[in-house]
Design goal:
The protein contains 19 helices and 16 strands. The strands form four sheets. The protein has a seven-stranded mixed sheet with strand order 2-1-3-4-5-6-7, sandwiched between helices. It has three domains: 152 residues, 3-Layer(aba) Sandwich (Rossmann fold), CATH 3.40.50; 272 residues, pyruvate-formate lyase- activating enzyme, CATH 3.80.30; 42 residues, no CATH class. The termini are far apart. With 476 residues, the protein is α/β, with parallel strands linked by helices. Strand 12, helix 11 and strand 13 form a beta-alpha-beta unit.
Length: 476
């Protein structure tokens, strides 16, 4: 089969579509399939250019789109364009959007099949049977339209327990060197970033999270991860690796084995991952630091215990403080986002978050609107409490960057009061920053941005050395 995989336009080109690269490599391993990729994030096309590209789709047996929920409008429009030209060409959709709204997507688009979780196995079986729509009912882990347009779902597919059995991602289908030039601060520091995934699933049940792979956690082995890192280093000279999973620390033994193996095998890299404030282990953090770890990111979200409880976070403010202190103590950087306007938010809870950020000397100055995404507890709450005024198709079509777009008021404030309070709170946070941090955050960041742009254009020369000296002088 000849398969085209499509990566929709996205505002963030800081990492390639890892899930899609796993799908591609698995398809190649399991059958004599020819895989091509249309990367519209790194290589955007105008409407006319996209239409011309679609004209060539007669070459393919099926088209697969890897999308998150904010690409909903693209999926609808793109599938319509494809079907208008080639009515019989199957269109498949997977990735996080499949967890959130498979039925709504099928009802309101020209998509034929939605793949849910464990995409490698399901997509491979689907591609083998793509010409036989009547056999779709026997494929686990999909939602699909039958020949009459009726929508059906099949039982979920069993989880992949041995993640080491999966082939390495198909990096050769993507312009990895260009993606590496979009990695912001890592590139600024002379680091060439690579990406790797280690676990699937998360054992926690945060109310705002649309979780892929469920609560059961499966993991790769440490040496399998390192072998992939070494291969990436060989191909692209990567020096810094981002473990992109939501919560690799859910498997502390894996992290410990990974850190030890990096040391024992003398793998000279730096790396970063995500943590959780109630999974703190100082000795493990020290080992991670020794092995090259530079940063632990925590989804703390709020400095108010009331809000954390409303989020079903399963963590406390005191645990968050301790996590930050220990992380800094062992020499790791701390990264953490904060949400605004969750259910129960009031002036007191906002004040508690501001005080937390000040006390812990965090650099956070932007708060992200709490946005209910389909498939989450928060979305169900917002629906049952009449906070969402649109039907699901319209609502998802309006979703975008939740840092900038305000769609749903989950609080007892009026919309005007909530927007004003957010603006005032962010102003307080910016004013609270020490001068040195403000300078680095805004002036030096701008210099880094200019340097990164020069790198993207391919004019390195002595510019990197000159900018480095300027930044050093400004910091001193």
């Amino acid at each position: 089969m000849r398969v085209l995989l499509v990566y929709p336009p996205a505002r963030d080109a800081s990492k390639p579509p890892i899930g899609m690269s796993y799908i591609s490599s698995f398809l190649r391993q399991k059958g004599a399939h020819q895989i091509e990729v249309l990367d519209l994030t790194l290589r955007p096309l105008s409407d006319d250019e996209l239409q011309k590209r679609v004209d060539s789709f007669h070459l393919y047996d099926c088209v697969g789109i890897s999308a998150i929920i904010t690409a909903y409008n693209f999926v609808k429009e793109f599938s319509g364009i494809v079907k208008e030209k080639f009515p019989d060409l199957p269109v498949i959709v997977g990735n996080a959007i499949s967890i959130s709204c498979p039925e709504t997507l099928l009802k309101n688009s020209e998509v034929d099949v939605v793949v849910v979780d464990e995409g490698e196995l399901t997509t491979a079986e689907l591609v083998e049977n793509i010409k036989d729509r009547k056999n779709y009912k026997n494929i686990k882990g999909i939602w699909y339209k039958d020949e009459d347009g009726n929508i059906h779902s099949t039982p979920l597919r069993e989880r992949i327990i041995d993640l080491d059995s999966l082939p390495y991602p198909d990096w050769d289908l993507f312009d990895i060197p260009t993606y590496m030039k979009h990695t912001g601060p890592y590139l600024d520091k002379g680091l060439l970033t690579g990406w790797i995934t280690a676990v699937r699933g998360c054992p926690f049940s945060c109310g705002y999270c649309s979780r892929s792979f469920g609560q059961k956690v499966t993991a790769r082995s440490a040496n399998n991860m390192i072998d992939e890192i070494l291969e990436f280093k060989r191909l692209y000279h990567g020096t810094h690796f981002n473990i992109v999973d939501d919560l690799v620390m859910a498997r502390p033994k894996l992290v410990r084995d990974f850190a030890r193996s990096l040391i024992e095998r003398k793998v000279n890299i730096t790396w970063q991952c995500t943590g959780r404030v109630n999974l703190v282990d100082e000795k493990l953090f020290e080992l991670m630091r020794k092995s090259g770890c530079t940063t632990l990111s925590y989804g703390i979200e709020s400095g108010s215990q009331k809000i954390l409880d409303n989020m079903n976070k399963g963590a406390t403010v005191e645990q968050a403080k301790r996590a930050i202190e220990i992380t800094r103590k062992v020499g790791l950087n701390v990264g953490t986002p904060f949400m605004f306007g969750y259910v129960g938010e009031d002036r007191e809870t906002v004040s508690e978050t501001v005080n937390f950020i000040k006390e812990m000397k965090l650099k956070a100055t932007a708060l992200f609107f709490s946005t209910p995404y389909p498939g989450t507890q928060l979305y169900d709450w917002a629906r049952s409490n009449d906070r969402i005024k649109y039907d699901e198709d319209t609502y998802i079509s309006l979703l975008g960057n939740n840092a900038e777009i305000f769609l749903v008021n989950l609080t007892d404030f009026t919309d005007e009061e909530l927007l004003k309070l957010k603006k005032e709170t962010e102003l307080k946070l910016r004013k609270n920053l020490p001068f040195k941090v403000k300078f680095e955050k805004y002036v030096i960041k701008r210099i880094y941005h200019i340097k990164a742009r020069i790198v993207q254009l391919g004019f390195m020369g002595t510019v990197k050395k000159v900018v480095g000296k300027i930044v050093s002088l400004l910091k001193s």
